[in-house]
Design a protein that fits this description.
- By secondary structure, this protein is of the alpha/beta class.
- The protein has eleven helices and 14 strands.
- The longest helix is centred in the C-terminal third of the chain and has 17 residues, at 271-287.
- The protein is elongated, with a radius of gyration of 23 Å.
């Protein structure tokens, strides 16, 4: 029952049959506590009720299991200080920690480094040295949204983004605004009370007023869920012609964005590639704790569907800046 031990198939079968008959199971947690580390990898996440985060956590778990590691989910409420969360679980001698929500403070990272626990961050802000990082190209994300709208003839740009700033959302929306202003366009900015479908729908009264006044003809929503709420609130509840009167671009390319009821044009970040890189970096850090810390930056993909105009003949999943860059 110990990985890497060589026994004949016949002996293995007899041992497993006897274990089943006795109801014996290996206590992997106890085995880990007896050694220097367990095979547990903590996955820190919040907003598990969103499709993007749920898929990200599931993908990370699958890739960890393929490496013989067991994922331990650590749920952090949005905005919660994850310091106590990580420090409490270090007693379990984790093999590593992958952070998808918020950025650990320098003292938490230092504690993990002292304990020999690799920390990998996905789409999190700059932190103290001591972590490997996987991130999307935030500048390319904002630029892709701008190009999708401007390519469809948009000249009056709007932005719907949460009032509460987060590293990745704020980074891509700032890049979008910068691209608009560089091209000589002002941006009408509207703040939502969150990233959810309900938040997008709640913004529709204000959006309709701006559309009626002729102040916007294209809208970048910081997340797909916001965009789906806008589509329901404007197109279905208020009869706004999309993309005739207003073109809309989202971000993430969640599964629901491709549903025929929405057909949302969006910018996709590759969850599988990011998760694979995060697990690979954690495993490399375990094998060689002294290797230089690494950042991998991934490109994004423009996905043209039915909420933008002027893209006839283009692929529904046109690649933007592609490939990973390392430094």
């Amino acid at each position: 029952m110990t990985k890497g031990k060589r026994v004949s198939p016949e002996v293995r079968a007899r041992v497993l049959d006897a274990a089943d008959a006795l109801g014996y199971r290996v206590n992997a947690l106890a085995r880990g506590l007896q050694g220097q580390q367990s095979n547990l990898v903590g996955v820190v996440a919040s907003r598990l009720d969103t499709p993007f985060r749920a898929l990200q956590v599931r993908t990370l778990a699958q890739k960890l299991l393929r490496e013989g590691m067991n994922p331990l989910l650590l749920v952090a409420d949005a905005g919660e200080d994850i310091r106590a969360l990580i420090q409490n679980i270090l007693a379990y001698r984790l093999a590593g920690v992958i952070v998808t929500s918020d950025t650990p403070s320098p003292d938490v990272i230092e504690a993990c480094n002292r304990a020999g626990v690799p920390v990998v961050m996905i789409n999190r802000g700059p932190a103290a040295t001591g972590t490997d990082t996987v991130c999307m190209d935030l500048g390319a994300g904002g630029r892709a949204a701008f190009e999708m709208l401007s390519g469809g003839g948009v000249r009056r740009f709007g932005l719907l983004a949460p009032a509460q700033e987060t590293y990745s959302v704020t980074g891509r929306t700032r890049a979008f605004v910068a691209c608009c202003e560089e091209a000589g366009h002002t941006v009408l900015r509207l703040a939502s009370d969150g990233q959810s479908h309900a938040s997008g729908k709640a913004a529709c009264a204000a959006l309709q007023a701006e559309i009626t006044a002729g102040r916007i003809d294209g809208l970048f929503c910081a997340t797909d869920l916001l965009a789906l709420g806008v589509l329901d609130g404007l197109r279905h509840d208020r009869g706004v012609d999309i993309p005739g009167t207003l073109q809309v671009v989202g971000f993430d390319d969640i599964e629901q964005a491709s549903w025929s009821a929405y057909a949302l044009s969006t910018v996709r970040q590759d969850i599988a590639d990011q998760a694979g890189a995060a697990v690979e970096l954690a495993m490399k850090r375990l094998a060689d704790p002294e290797r230089p810390f690494e950042t991998r930056t991934f490109g994004l993909h423009k996905v043209f569907r039915g909420t933008t105009r002027g893209h006839a003949g283009q692929s529904n999943a046109q690649k933007g800046p592609s490939g990973e860059q390392r430094r």
